[in-house]
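Lab channel / #folding
Pinned by the channel admin:
"Please post every new chain as: sequence first, then the structure tokens as a reply. Keep commentary short and put observations after the output so the thread stays searchable."

First post following the new format, from NK:
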Amino acid sequence: MASRHLSRSIAMQSLYEWDFYGKKEGSLDAVLERNINDFGPGLEDVHFVKELAHGVLEHLTDIDNIIEKAAPEWPIAQIPIIDRNVLRIGLYELLYSNKDEVPPKVAINEAIELAKNFSGQISGKFVNGVLGTVYKQLEGK
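Reply from TO:
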């Protein structure tokens, strides 16, 4: 597994756990450290995992509002936790990351792969639909 893909997987798993246990303030760092040690021993770019997770956290309200606008029939609380956090990572990369480092189509494709690997084919299509909608709106600006 490529280093960045593994980093995204660890960030998603950490955000999932943090979200599942009630988004307790200050608990994400401990979850990240444990998951990096468990799933990514020897991972070269630990900073990228933390950047993704903390970036999502920093922009959480805006990201969740975007999800609700892009998928109005799915209130954020009704989206499965895995899918919700895959979308959060995908939107963070799509909207806030360095586009030279992570082009928009790479951010979308990586999110789709995370959804397929951790949730299922239908989730991959859902993630593609939401992120594709947001990307089209960005292109129109």
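NK: The chain has a mean pLDDT of 94.
TO: also worth noting, Residues 12 and 85 are 6 Å apart (CA to CA).
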